[in-house]
């Protein structure tokens, strides 16, 4: 059985609401989202943002929930109760989310023949330049005309004001040549 993991990061915004960030991954089956949504609603929570997907039979996602501070612990306990029903395995880590910075957002598209190491190479360049990946979506598919497999990635990254964009572009161009992919920046 694939382990499913929930990570709750609790933050109190001026005493008004607490934000829980939930992450989950595990065997997909009908009713998982409904079970979580029912618990969130039953404890006065508000499902704010989420990104959920099924990949190769595995359900995975991240969910942002807000709840009154006095109900956050109760909601967290109820979410843990889902694992007792066989729906989820729950692990809770507590921390504080990063502060929103007035950074620039960069969109990066990658397309080329699939091969091992593309994500490692591209993410390594982004990390070396202190970019933070906000979203990453990848896909492989059959290359209809050429045969083989195509790899495609879409990346949204935060770029701190201190980053040398020309140096970043040069490093991404170097990686594109090395791994033989097209990289487009927007």
UniProtKB/TrEMBL annotation:
InterPro entries: ACT-like_dom_sf, ACT_dom, GcvR, UPF0237/GcvR_regulator. It comes from the Bacteria. GO terms for biological process: regulation of DNA-templated transcription. Coiled coil: none annotated. Residues 21-95, 107-186 form the ACT domain. It holds the Pfam family ACT_6. PANTHER family: UPF0237 PROTEIN MJ1558 (PTHR34875). This is Glycine cleavage system regulatory protein.
């Amino acid at each position: 059985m694939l382990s499913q993991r929930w990570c709750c990061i609790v933050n109190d915004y001026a005493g008004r609401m607490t934000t829980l960030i939930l992450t989950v991954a595990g065997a997909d089956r009908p009713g998982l989202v409904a079970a979580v949504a029912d618990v969130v609603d039953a404890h006065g929570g508000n499902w704010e943002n989420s990104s959920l997907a099924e990949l190769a039979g595995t359900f995975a996602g991240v969910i942002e929930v807000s709840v009154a501070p006095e109900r956050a612990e109760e909601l967290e306990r109820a979410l843990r109760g889902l694992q007792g029903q066989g729906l989820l395995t729950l692990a809770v880590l507590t921390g504080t989310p990063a502060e929103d910075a007035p950074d620039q957002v960069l969109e990066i598209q990658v397309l080329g023949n699939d091969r091992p190491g593309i994500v490692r190479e591209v993410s390594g360049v982004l990390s070396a330049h202190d970019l933070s990946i906000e979203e990453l979506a990848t896909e492989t598919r059959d290359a209809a005309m050429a045969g083989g497999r195509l790899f495609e990635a879409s990346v949204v990254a935060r770029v701190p004001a201190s980053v040398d964009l020309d140096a970043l572009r040069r490093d991404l161009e170097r990686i594109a040549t090395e791994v033989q992919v097209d990289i487009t920046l927007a």
